[in-house]
Amino acid sequence: MAENSKIPISPRVEAVFNAYPRKFRSKLIFLRQLIFDTAASIGDIGELEETLKWGEPSYLTPVSKSGSTIRIAWKPAQKETYSIFFKCTANLVPAFRERFPKTFNYGANRSIDFGPDDVIPQMELKQCIAMALTYHRNKKLDPEERWKMVEKIRWLE
Questions:
Q1: Has residue 75 been placed in a domain?
Q2: Is residue 1 part of a domain?
Q3: Quick count: other Cβ atoms within 10 Å of Cβ 111?
Q4: How far is CA 48 from CA 7, 55, 62, 104, 117, in A?
Q5: Which of 38, 42, 106, 119 sees the fewest Cβ atoms within 10 Å?
Q6: This model's pTM is above 0.85
Q7: Which domain holds residue 38?
């Protein structure tokens, strides 16, 4: 099992994590755990499915179909960055940018990017993850109502 993970990883996904540079591997495992912890806090989205999409660890809500796919990765083209990716056509990243303009570094309309020494603002990132995991439930709401839905989540510690 990949380092610092509380949830078992499939051999295919684990192989991808193990191929990442060591200094990013534990950071990506941390993002993975944050995704699972956020999903558990939401409660009614069903179990997450962990798979590979585009060769990257990806997280879906196949039971409830409430969410938009989330991916995490380090890419050789951006050697000093690792990212959490969201579906660009879902307009999630623009909503995150509006809510948290100075909290994160954004990669266009598709990612939140982190450097190796960045401290991750966990509560804010969990809110972004929750927005993605409930996307199909809240996509027709106005932005303020979408955030109110997320703020009602009782976060597990």
A1: yes
A2: no
A3: 23
A4: 11, 18, 7, 25, 29
A5: 119
A6: yes
A7: 11-151
User: 22-50: b or e for each residue (b if 16 or more CB lie within 10 Å)?
Assistant: eebbebbbbbbebbbbbbebbeebeebeb
How do residues 55-106 score in pLDDT, each as one tens digit? 999 999 999 999 999 999 999 998 999 999 999 888 899 999 999 999 999 9
pLDDT in tens, 100-149: 999 999 998 899 999 999 999 999 999 999 999 999 988 888 878 888 88
Q: For residues 57 and 71, what is the distance between their CA atoms, to the nearest angstrom?
A: 6
Q: Is residue 23 a part of any domain in this protein?
A: yes
Tell me the residue ranges of DSSP E strands in 44-138. 49-53, 56-60, 70-74, 82-86, 105-107, 111-114
Q: Is residue 3 part of a domain?
A: no
Q: Residue 38 belongs to a domain with what CATH number?
A: 3.90.1150.200
Q: End-to-end alpha-carbon separation of the chain, Å?
A: 23
Collapsing DSSP to helix, strand or coil, 60 comes out as strand
Residue with tokens 């603002």: 121
Cα gap 111→4, rounded to integer Å: 24
* Cβ neighbours of 90 (radius 10 Å): 19
C-alpha count within 13 angstroms, C-beta hemisphere, residue 29: 22
